[in-house]
Design brief:
By secondary structure, chain A is α+β, with helices and mostly antiparallel strands. Chain A is 56% helix and 16% strand. A six-stranded mixed barrel of chain A has the order 3-4-8-5-7-6. In chain A, a hairpin with a 4-residue loop joins strand 6 (158-162) and strand 7. In chain B, the strands form two sheets. A five-stranded parallel sheet of chain B has the order 6-7-8-3-9, sandwiched between helices. A four-stranded antiparallel sheet of chain B has the order 2-1-4-5, with no helix packed on it. Helix content of chain B is 36%, strand content 21%. Chain B starts with 8 loop residues before the first strand and ends with a strand. Chain B is globular, with a radius of gyration of 17 Å. Chain B has helices at 48-55, 78-87, 104-115, 119-132, 148-160, 178-193, 205-209, and strands at residues 9-16, 25-31, 37-41, 63-68, 71-72, 89-92, 166-170, 197-201, 213-216. Classes of the chains: A alpha+beta, B alpha/beta. The A-B interface holds A 5, 8-9, 12-13, 16, 19-20, 23-24, 276-277, 280-290, 357-359, 362-364 and B 49, 53, 56, 58-59, 78-79, 82-87, 89, 91, 93-95, 97, 99, 101-102, 106, 110-111, 113-116, 118-119, 158.
């Protein structure tokens, strides 16, 4: 019951704030324009940088920032059975075992270009677009470069023959992710049984776990292996993230502070112009808290209108310029900051308004 | 049935002065007649409006206190005084003090916000007051350009809407023609007849003639 009455009072206060703002359209528009400019400036500068940063980090990740490769040393072997152990690790998003390549050519093109065909097993073969429920001996899948090299681009399927007479049939196309690009052209034979690997590729669940995972793999695999991760790429990623973050935070704080001051000045002018109004309200029984709430609500409503306009303008302009858009969380954060600036700017004017003395403001000389 | 309140408004040992050396009131005690109009007279500068603001709880006495419906207000907080102003008092300002950016109806209903009442629930009563005071304006019209008489009548509607126990009016007929002044006094008399304590600061002999009690400062 009490909550409902409180809710009604808030609605009543907001209605009053809207009416007051509409009664002073000029200053209200000015305050909204300042907040819109702050929001748009933040999005068009820092937001654009954040969008570019996200794209850059994504490209780092796509380029192998989370990739770890494991290879047997010259005197050892690495069995595909390690996938069973890797699958149980929460830090491993995906792992694939690639066998030793056997060169094969298109059976229909004698003397044609040869491509390495590898036995293959993975924690999730679907990542490569392989949708074959069970491995069938001799069945292989090829990616686009391999199909082209083998002269199978048109049909997408065909028979292969190795130098030692072994045969395989390409039955479909692979779509390997970017982090396997170094292994292309790829022709893979899904294999159920254990086989010797030339390389096991592991995709960590997050860049932050790559170091720890890299360090733990030799012990975990209990094998004489060479483990390598893209440490240079990782270092560069961290550096980019840190520098862009620092630059952005400083810029946002500067714009936020300037907006709060400007909004505060506009609200102060508005309150000073209408001090008789606040004096009358106090005389008629308005509590100081209500006056503070009213001025704050007016500022927040103007801030909300301004932030919405700023978001729309900035997004429209970034779309028009084909710039990368910052994500939704960034945009929501900017709106919250804009409202915080409006709120901060209204504190002094609200206090000033709540202390208008009816005697001074209303007395007719 | 008129609700005559035995002790709606009184001052006890009131002292006040803007300048400590020039007190406007010194140890003044008075009990305002309930259910009557009290006219406060006196030459300019004797503190008539100041007294009204003291009675209206907008000024604090330097000594003594204002008693509203048997409750001494001296120790009350600013919030309690604001609540009393909103609920127990109806104040008519010398220049009406309407909000020119809001509609006539919004002006009449303004106090609802401070009394935590729903304006929509009070709208019919507000319209009745406007009709009874002969305000023939569209209630949605803004009062920016209405005549002084219309503005004062709208201000009266605002002051009387919640049927306060105490009505304080500062020169309510100051700039009004005879007919409008008579109408304003009719309404104040009605309020008094219904039990309200009405205190009017005035220079107007028309008001003095219709008051039941006079206080000369």
């Amino acid at each position: 019951m009490k909550t409902r009455a409180g809710g009604r009072r808030i609605v009543q206060l907001l209605t009053e704030a809207v009416k007051v703002a509409l009664g002073h359209v000029g200053p209200a528009i000015l305050a909204s324009v300042v907040v819109a400019a702050m929001t748009a400036t933040t999005l068009l500068t820092n937001g654009r940088v954040a969008g570019a940063q996200r794209d850059l980090l994504d490209s780092f990740d796509r380029a192998g920032g989370r990739v770890i490769t494991v290879q047997p040393t010259a005197n050892s072997t690495l069995s595909s059975t390690v996938l069973t152990r890797l699958k149980s690790l929460s830090d491993v998003e995906w792992a694939g075992a690639f066998g030793i390549a056997d060169d094969m050519t298109n059976r229909g093109i004698p003397g044609g270009e040869s491509v390495g065909v590898r036995a293959f097993a993975a924690t999730d073969p679907a990542l490569l677009g392989i949708r074959w429920p069970n491995a069938v001996p001799g069945v292989a899948f090829a990616d686009a470069p391999a199909l082209q090299a083998l002269g199978l681009s048109g049909t997408g399927s065909g028979g292969l023959r190795g130098e030692d007479g072994t045969a395989a049939s390409v039955v479909g196309q692979l779509h390997p992710p970017a982090f396997l690009r170094s292994l292309q052209p790829l022709v893979l034979r899904p294999t159920n049984g254990a086989f010797d690997c030339s390389v096991v590729v592991i995709l960590a669940s997050d860049v932050s776990v790559v170091d720890a995972l890299t360090a733990s793999l030799p012990g975990l695999l209990a094998s004489d292996v060479q483990v390598s991760a893209s440490t240079d790429l990782l270092a560069m990623r961290t550096q980019v993230q840190g520098q862009v973050g620092l630059l952005g935070n400083g810029l946002v704080l500067g714009v936020l502070g300037a907006s709060a001051v400007l909004v505060g000045m506009i609200q102060m002018v508005l309150v000073t112009m209408n001090r008789k109004d606040y004096g009358r309200r106090r005389a008629l029984g308005a509590r100081r808290g209500l006056i503070v709430g009213l001025v704050t609500a007016i500022s927040l409503i103007e801030g909300m209108v301004g932030a919405t306009a700023g978001i729309i303008l900035a997004n429209a302009s970034m779309i028009a310029l084909a710039d990368p858009l910052p994500d939704a969380w960034f945009q929501i954060s900017v709106v919250v900051l804009a409202l915080a600036a409006s709120l901060a700017g209204s504190i002094v004017p609200a206090w000033f308004a709540s202390r208008r003395d009816p005697i001074i403001e209303l007395r007719v000389p | 049935m008129p609700r005559v309140d035995a002790s709606a408004l009184e001052v006890r040992n009131l002292s006040f002065g803007y300048d400590a050396d020039l007190p406007l009131f010194a140890d003044w005690t008075h009990r305002f007649a309930p259910g009557a109009i009290t006219a406060i007279f006196g030459p300019s500068g004797r503190g008539k409006s100041t007294l009204l603001y003291l009675l209206g709880l907008m000024l604090r006495p330097t000594a003594g206190e204002i008693v509203i419906r048997s409750a001494p207000t001296g120790g009350m907080s600013d919030r309690e005084l604001a609540d009393l102003r909103a609920t127990e008092l109806g104040f008519v300002f010398q220049d009406a003090a309407l909000d020119p950016t809001r509609s006539v109806m919004d002006n009449v209903l303004e106090g609802c916000l401070y009394r935590r009442q729903s304006p929509s629930a009070w709208r019919p009563a507000a319209q009745k007051w406007l009709d009874s005071l002969g305000v023939e304006l569209d209630p949605s019209r803004k009062p920016g350009k209405v005549s002084g008489g219309q503005a004062q009548r709208i201000a009266l509607c605002r002051a009387l809407l919640h049927q306060p126990h105490i009505v304080l009016a500062d020169e309510p007929t100051g700039n009004l023609d005879d007919a409008t002044a008579a109408l304003v006094m009719d309404v104040l008399e009605d309020a008094a007849r219904n039990g309200a304590t009405v205190v009017v600061v005035t220079h107007d002999s028309r008001v003095a003639a219709r008051s039941q009690e006079q206080v000369r400062l």
